[in-house]
Fold this sequence. Notes:
single chain; alpha/beta; 3-stranded antiparallel β-sheet; Rossmann fold; 2 domains
Amino acid sequence: MLVRQGDVGRIVQSTSQLHPAAHPFRCLRPLHRRAAAATANAHSDVASEAVLVTNARVAVQSNPREVYQICEAPCCSTSAASAAQGAPSVDPTVLAALAGLGLTAFALKRIFDTPSRKYDNNVGKEYDAWTEEGVLEYYWGEHIHLGYYSDEELARGYLKKDFKQAKFDFVDEMLKFSGAQNPKTILDVGCGFGGTSRHLAKKFRDASVTGITLSSKQVQRGSQLAEQQRVTNVNFQVMDALSMDFPDNSFDLVWACESGEHMPDKKKYIEEMTRVLKPGGTLVIACWCQREAETHGSAPLSEQEKRELQFLYDEWAHPYFISIQEFERLMKGTGTLQDVSAANWTRNTLASWRHSIWVGVFDPWVVVLKGPRIWYKTAREIVTLERMHQAFAKGLMEYGMMTATKKPLPPAAAAGAAAEGAAAPAAAAAV
Length: 431
């Protein structure tokens, strides 16, 4: 409400009939300094009002355009009663709402900080569920692993790259890293939906490619996609990577992309893949690794780091992670692998974590239409993806790449193996 020159008299008349401590006289907060000085020096409510109004008249007369702002605070009264009446108050409904929001936020944090899928020999079951839901395949495509982003692509901005194409690029870069040349028999350990298996089968048409997984649903889906794509030189089987049914020295290339994270015995994992690898063949591994700790002069893990790692173990059914250096030691420890080498690919894979979140933001409908259970599960995945990003970004986690070749057999042993290989077809023909 604004008071102009013509209104001053009416204000004085109306306010003079009220007791100073009880009336709701609205404070005139003039821009003119004399009104403020008069209010500050007043010794009584009535005197304050008189001085204020008098000075207000003078101010308005001296500048007809000056406007006085009406305020709610009882600044025109110096009595304790007036001050008490004008004390600010907060609506109890607002306080209750704020308290409710605080409790909700606290509860949600507790929920999302509590892992939901601890490792309990449940890897196959979890991948069966992910396969049936279809959300993972919808966003990640045929490959359940991180993508590769070159330095030039990172400079341009990772969101400009197709998320699914980044995964195909990763397979091609991993193949280059391995150094494998025209393998005729390929084993994909932990093949998922079989995206890598089919990609390698298309690249090496004369090769026979086998993918193994603990998930029967993944075998079923991988076989469907192979049929749809008319890839005939690939097959998928349910098999435990720690106890494979294949004979010794069966494959020219053993490929393990992001399967070691789920293995409860990393040493056995390396030894079993080495066993089925042919002499002269190539073993290549890609795996999420935690930083080296408490060995060879490296700093121990802090309590905070241990808590962060434990969450990453327990949310996605991981028994534990090891370092890149530990992978190297395990490979050298087999006694049959040579030319062991390793690299840290964190820089060129890190963008995948947040990229996978953004593809869902840009296209949320497959999740929206699946209902509350998938909403909750997807929210948990987003939290974990971001926590993975942070762990890799600060060096707690590293993206490990390891490769080696299997030593050739001694001459005598090689001759014996050749004889066994020639005898097997003859025996089969005799039957």
